[in-house]
Automatic annotation (TrEMBL):
Transmembrane segments: none annotated. PANTHER family: DILUTE CLASS UNCONVENTIONAL MYOSIN, ISOFORM C, MYOSIN. Residues 35-57 are annotated as: Actin-binding. Residues 1-107 form the Myosin motor domain. Signal peptide: none annotated. SUPFAM superfamilies: P-loop containing nucleoside triphosphate hydrolases (SSF52540). Belongs to the TRAFAC class myosin-kinesin ATPase superfamily. Myosin family. Keywords: Actin-binding, ATP-binding, Motor protein, Myosin, Nucleotide-binding. This is Myosin motor domain-containing protein. PROSITE patterns: MYOSIN_MOTOR. Pfam families: Myosin_head (PF00063). GO terms for molecular function: actin filament binding; ATP binding; microfilament motor activity.
Length: 107
């Protein structure tokens, strides 16, 4: 089938099957390298999550729908996070610190 496709009258089909295997492999290696680069960049970053709240359903400026905003804040956990912070747990621990602290408690 590869030989038939490489000798096709259709330019697209002929070009697709006549390219050497190393060229196809090059594309996959390029993609792999780009993904490794992306992962390396993401690993260097310190991620912060921003929650966007829509002030109203009409997308109108200077209008504030309190019920809609409260529902969004509750749905994404902001209200619960505020309650936890008020209860005296405002400090964030690194996962390693958290694990060591609680693993030692159950060992």
């Amino acid at each position: 089938m590869t030989d038939c496709s490489a000798n096709s009258h259709a330019d697209f089909t002929r070009d697709l099957f006549s390219a050497p295997l190393s060229q196809h492999r090059g594309i996959s290696f390029k993609f792999r390298d780009e993904m490794h680069g992306l992962v390396a960049t993401l690993n260097k970053c310190e991620g912060h999550f921003i929650r966007c709240i829509k002030p109203n359903g009409a997308r109108a400026p200077f209008e504030f729908d309190e019920r809609l905003c409260r529902q969004q804040l509750q749905s994404c956990g902001v209200l619960e996070a505020a309650k936890v912070s008020q209860a005296g747990y405002p400090k964030r621990l690194l996962f390693k610190e958290f694990f060591c602290y609680f693993y030692g408690a159950h060992a």
